[in-house]
Predict the 3D structure of the following.
Amino acid sequence: MAKKQDINSVKKPKIKKKYPIVNLYLHAGFNNSIVTLTNLQGQTIMWSSSGKAGFKGSKKSTPFAAQKVTEEILDVVKTVEASSAHIIIDGAGMGRDSFLRAIQNSDLQIESIKDITGFPHGGAKPKNRRRV
């Protein structure tokens, strides 16, 4: 019979590949901030969000939560030995500035910053005027 491993003794797999250039995606919503680290082909290496970092309720959408999530991802960037990154930002939440500030304080070189936030052009038909 095979030995059963204790649930607490299971170790997380270590990231073994090295990527010199990575993509950092930020989705800054009004309720949460999600940061994704990918390689240049778009394959996800790691992701983290404010809720995953332990923030609950309205605290998930704060700039402080986005900063903590970004610092968590930057630790992984060091393990994959990335020296530069392309930054892609989506959304209009409060975490945008603190995300960029946390990256600028790190030793990561920024190759490009792209904003892919969608905005309506044309939009919905306006409501008709009331006739009395």
